[in-house]
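Record type: ASSEMBLY
Status: queued
Input:
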Amino acid sequence: MRYGAFMTSTYTVLSEGLEKRYGSGDQMVHALRGLDLAVEEGTVCGLLGPNGAGKTTAVRVLTTLLRPDAGSARVAGHDVLTEAPAVRRRIGVTGQYASVDGDLTGRENLRLFARLLRLPRSHADELLDRFGLTAAADRTARTYSGGMRRRLDLAASLLTRPAVLFLDEPTTGLDPHSRSAIWDAVRELTRQGTTVLLTTQYLEEADQLADSVVLIDGGRAAHRGTPAELKAQTGSYAEVVVAEDAALHAAAVVLDQLTGAEPTLDPDRRAVGVVTLDQALTLPRIVRELDASGVPIVDATLRPPTLDEAFLRLTGGRELVA
Amino acid sequence: MTTAFLYDGTAMLGRHLQRIRHAPAILVMTQTMPIVFLLFFGYVFGSALAMPGADYRAFLVPGMLVATAANGIMTGMFTAAQDSHRGVMDRFRTLPMTRAAVPLGQAAADIVTTAAGLVPLLLVGLAMGWRIEGGALEAAGAFGLLLLFRFAATWVGILFGLVSRSEEAAGQLGGATFMLPLLSNAYIPTAGFPGWVRVLAEWNPISAVATAVRDLFGNAPVPGGSSWPVAHPVAGSLAWCAVLLTVCVPLAVRRYTTGGR
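Status: finished
Output:
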């Protein structure tokens, strides 16, 4: 049985043991090292990881753009290696770099893709309207803002109402307004039953959209779960900035006693930080304890960890594998 | 399958023509260059070249038409290299379309623009004293051969463009193909070339095509030419085109299909 680990028909995206290397010798990059994925039909799966973790390589393999060195994958019921044309009929892909022709207008782009998909021109015009691009439809795409290009790209991916939509960092570099417009479009699609595989560097994006999250580290799935589980496991990040260098160690001792975790010192900024899983820890309590110990502080914060911090936590304190 | 291929190819042809419509300056420049060269070679170099019993400018015009056709290598290379580094290629590759349609559309669009560009070049040629001296059918054959040779040259260019690592590399290599007509009888008869250079020049496909085009237009025959393709210019030209297309089309399509994999 090739898909022993996840042998069931409810998974729309399924990969097992994907391996991919680029280059050779000293230059060799091992982008995927046995990646297993399973995305249930009609759900959004977020692939999280820093640059170079293997997210984009995984998407390129699953969308038939890249041939893996080992392993297998099925998308929408078809093998990506042996049934690539069937896979292509059932997917939509929106890349990190907008996959539209900058030398054509928005309308010409969508009409060209519609033509290649044997769809009527009117369908392309409807999508321009739906994504708020009608006013700019007759300008070349290179004149579009980042958000407009991304919307055009997403519109191009939705011409066929795909079974699986791949979004490779769909909001990287976008302003908050454009970002929420993309998020709304993705939510609308999942309501209609489309399965979405999303890669992102933003924990918040996964939190907003994903039903399940896979943390990728060094080309492997390092952690799986729901966004809530992920957050519960990564806890929160507390940081205080002290008024004088001499108080740095005293602050570290207090934070150590409060959390039981080892704080990290940043002498240049006179800052002490610590990651804690303690849900009961509040900012007033941190400030009170420091005050009681006579540590002079100028700033204190308690916030969800960044993705980097979550990585440090979930990968056992190792440095990021980039 | 064939219908799908032609349908997709026509769609890609439309894509290239739309791109030209949005940025016509590039096309105007590539179409003007041969005219500039024709005037420059005809009136600057031509003033120093004495061809016994022949008018150099009338000799040069058909040669420049063929050199322009050979420029398909440069244009094809640059366009393919530029295209292959664009995000839109990823979209084409993830669409359920015939993959060979992408390079075919490029080559077809190139033929359309080349045919249009021949008109002003011919008018300048006529103004310089060159004439079609043979029959209309033969002249039509000459134009057909020019376009066929351009088509073959474009596929050579597409192949090299897809193989090259960057647009810059393709630009430099493509620029170097400007040398190819210099090593043929397009601009100067090969009779005076020294030893092995002459052999090379006479086996250059451009020499065979230039000889065939001069024959078909009824222009004065070129002195020199002992290679088989030049001695049998029409058959030799067709053979060269067949060889170039048979080698380059499958390799280019294969390269496009497996690109990035």
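Annotation: Residues 165 and 226 of chain A are 20 Å apart (CA to CA).
Annotation: Residues 1-7, 318-322 of chain A have pLDDT under 50 and may be disordered.
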